[in-house]
Amino acid sequence: MAKMMKAAVFVEPGRIELEDKPIPDIGPQDALIRITTTTICGTDVHILKGEYPVAKGLTVGHEPVGIIEKLGSGVQGFKEGQRVIAGAITPSGHSYACLCGCSSQDGPGTKHGYKATGGWKFGNLIDGAQAEYLRVPDAMANLCAVPDALTDEQVLMCPDIMSTGFSGAESGKIRIGDTVAVFALGPIGLCAVAGAKLMGATTIIGVDTVAKRLEIARQLGADHTVDFKAGNPVDQIMALTDGRGVDVAIEALGTQNTFESALRVLRPGGRLSSLGVYSGDLKIPLDAFAAGLGDLSIVTTLCPGGKERMRRLLEVVASGRANLKPLVTHRYKLDNITEAYDLFAHQRDGVLKIAVTP
Ligand SMILES: NC(=O)c1ccc[n+]([C@@H]2O[C@H](COP(=O)([O-])OP(=O)(O)OC[C@H]3O[C@@H](n4cnc5c(N)ncnc54)[C@H](O)[C@@H]3O)[C@@H](O)[C@H]2O)c1
Ligand SMILES: [Zn+2]
After folding, report:
1. What mean pLDDT is reported for the chain?
2. Of these four, 12, 62, 148, 175, which has the most CB atoms within 10 Å of its CB?
3. How far does residue 291's CA lie from ligand 2's centre (Å)?
4. 218 and 73 inside one domain
5. What domain range includes position 44?
6. What is the arithmetic mean of pLDDT over 149-159?
């Protein structure tokens, strides 16, 4: 009989529960990782609520830190017992999308079945990381060794939160001296603030209403914070920029309201870099869009993955260029993950990210 493990499974909208599942089998290009630390993403909450559909019975989670338990026969360059991370997005490295330089959109690439987000496999297309063990596909493209000097918690933001938040700044093509607004300061938006600073923005405006999040945004590089409950954030940002608007607006929530505000604060020719996962309708108001004549760019990014991306993010952590320590606010055992979801989904007790350990 297959050996069993504990895994957090999507049962139905409103229910993610811990179940016993067989430890995954691996193929020649895969690795089996024994998870040592993982966490819950805002996207997992969309899954929990049924806003982002996944198959019933799927193990959720896409942020793994762990130890290589077993390597497929074709995997070279790694050894069992090594501590590693893998990105939330696991590109194969050989698909049409990967070879077009768009590896997050990795997928079958056939006439049939090619679909956006195909590079996001863990907890979306295949069993994910909120479990005792995880199968990592295309291990040679995706495993990244963690330096001994860094703790699990220090690298826990690399697979997704840091990669996504930073990509908001990178896709926004921020230039030295830019003015940047970041809408929503959850873990993703906070990393976008840190990323904007690393990219050379000299005026960063963070928008949220939670005092603690506004405070952490200032620690990470925000020069101004705007409380969206204290007045229309568009007006507040226009006042802060002497009516010029911002060069780059990063959307980090996934709502009509924040998308539209991000569009409205752009200077002509500005760039909206969108990170949120939207559910329901999204409309582009013609006036904010300058009827299509504003030289505006709207760009979306799915978290970049792959071992080279992870290596670079580990370098950022190791170099101390960005200190994301304040993001891990809570610790839970995998056994209590339903409680962790409840706390995280309701943003109780000042939670930002929860380190979950099997
Ligand atoms: N693009 C990707 O690859 C990717 C990866 C991970 C997560 N995401 C998505 O990023 C989004 C953010 O995730 P998170 O975990 O950081 O979010 P979160 O849920 O922790 O935080 C959301 C924040 O938005 C704030 N907020 C609510 N209404 C607001 C408004 N009108 N204006 C400004 N702020 C407002 C809340 O106070 C809260 O601080 C989610 O949609 C998530 O699914 C995308
Ligand atoms: Zn995520």
Report:
1. 96
2. 62
3. 34
4. no
5. 4-157+324-357
6. 98
